[in-house]
What does this fold into?
Amino acid sequence: MTPSTTPFPTPLIDPAGLRRWLPDVLVVDCSHELAAPEAGVRAFSEAHIPGAVHMHLDRDLSAAPEPGLGRHPLPRREDLQRRLAALGLRQAQPVVAYDRNLNCFSSRLWWLLRWLGVQQVAVLDGGWQAWLAAGGEAESGPAAARQAGDFQAQPRPGMPTVDVEELLADVQGMRRRHLVVDARSPQRYAGEGETLDPVGGHIPGAVCRFYHDNLRADGSFLPAAELRTQWLQRLQGREASQVVCQCGSGVSACHNLLALELAGLGGASLYPGSWSQWCADAARPVARGSQP
It folds into this structure.
């Protein structure tokens, strides 16, 4: 069997595994800095995995912001499909995503590709730092020109989303159907030191699971069994299908969705607008402090 026909056994791949698949996979560097939107492009130009391409959070992995939609709306499927094909993605070609940011942004691409129906997609465990630590080669400069691919999206059930009106009805209802899990830091969840959005706090009833808690000290993901134990405690008896993951703008929430998948707890939904959409309307309730 060849890499073009063999699916990845898990959503993670280590540097040694990636070496075995090169050059048959499309490697995508998703490095980005929220406070310096072009920093990821510069870092890619300075050094990246040989043959990799770069996808920008704002221009490729999100649609243009519109009032009331949050800071990083989901791109249109057809736009993302065209961009991936222009980068050279072929039908059924595996994809490996990585970044320099604890795999926050590569997790967003992982989720988006699964949303498009791509099954052969993995995140490089430990990201760029793990690649270098394992002796991985690097090249500099812009991505090499690639022949356009023939990728076509084939969306299928399994990566559900929840919109703001559905969540609002849930928050205002007597019986809540969802457990909202907030991937932001405990400080931002509590409404302390908010720097990205105009209002601090969290959606009433949401619980905090900082996405950093999915990781070891070296930036690699915790073992699947440990993730499962921690997440089952966080889910408070709920099924994964009842969970809605959110964050500031629908990006680091995908890190929690990846961790749930690794833990064998797939089926949770993404709230794409997340806190940046929720807090844009003063009529929506806001909770502050360390409790839901």
The longest helix spans residues 104-115. The mean pLDDT is 95. Residues 164-278 form a domain with the Oxidized Rhodanese; domain 1 fold (CATH 3.40.250.10).
